[in-house]
Amino acid sequence: MGHVQENQPPGVPPLELTGERTLPDIPVENYWYRRHLAVYEWIAEQVVGLRVADLACGEGYGAAVLAGSAAEVVGVEANPEAFEHAVSRYQRENLRFDRGLVEDFQGPCDAAVFLERLAQAAPVLYVSTPNRLTLAPPGASKSDNPWHLREYTLDEYRKLLEPRFAQVRIFGVFHARKLRAHELALRLGWDRVHRMLRITKPFYNRFIPAISSSDFRLAEDKLESALDFVAVCRG
After folding, report:
1. Does pLDDT of 80 surpass 60?
2. Does residue 89 fall inside a structural domain?
3. In a domain, 158, yes or no
């Protein structure tokens, strides 16, 4: 068995990390979890008082974040283990989970969230994708993630979305705070230093679990160098 969620509440079945979705409560996965969480927290600020659908919600943590500000949230998930986990772990009066395919979702909702997938399911759609230029090797058509059928550059993402919607705004996810400092350190040769000092494993065993969602930021400038793209689509 690979990495499994740690320290789950009583009665909540832990999920195994397969690569299909990111999960909280797995220290080695913390970077990717916080990177997704930062997007959910940003979207939560945009959907205050709305009815929101989190499509393909996975473990359920994102739907729970959205429920902190939205009027009501439904998380839609087809995977039976993820659905059972979400129902068991995240319980709020304004939050429910439906097991089913995204294609069968009927609504109603004011906004839909679809991270790293695309579906037209609400008047406002928040949809994200990784930036292929920062994820895949130079010249490759995609990264080696088998769950990503396709990855986009900024221009490709615009060409995909703009014909389908009346209005499209694209934001980028970037490193901030200590991740930005780490990024600058790498440019100054940190990789060589930690290997030379033989502290690679101890350093990153502490650094990665310490990453928080505030170590990422969303902005509309310099999008070509963003880690991920988050599109807000209307109409």
Report:
1. yes
2. yes
3. yes
Please enumerate in sequence order all residues whose Cβ is within 8 A of that of 129, keeping only pairs 6 or more positions apart, or say none.
116, 151, 152, 157, 228, 229
pLDDT band at 141 (very low <50, low <70, confident <90, very high): confident
Residue 20 lies in a domain: no
Question: Residue 135's pLDDT is what?
Answer: 82
> 148-198, pLDDT tens digit by residue?
778 899 999 999 999 999 999 999 999 999 999 999 999 999 999 999 999
Query: Under a CB-based contact definition with an 8 Å cutoff, are residues 86 and 97 in contact?
Result: yes
Residue 34 backbone class (left: φ over 0; alpha: ψ -120 to 50; beta: rest): alpha
Q: How many domains does the chain have?
A: 1
In a domain, 21, yes or no: no
Domain that holds residue 61: 27-234
Phi, psi of 107 (to 5 degrees): 85, -155
CB 227 within 8 A of CB 174: yes
Which CATH number characterizes residue 121's domain? 3.40.50.150
For the entire predicted model, the pTM comes to 0.93
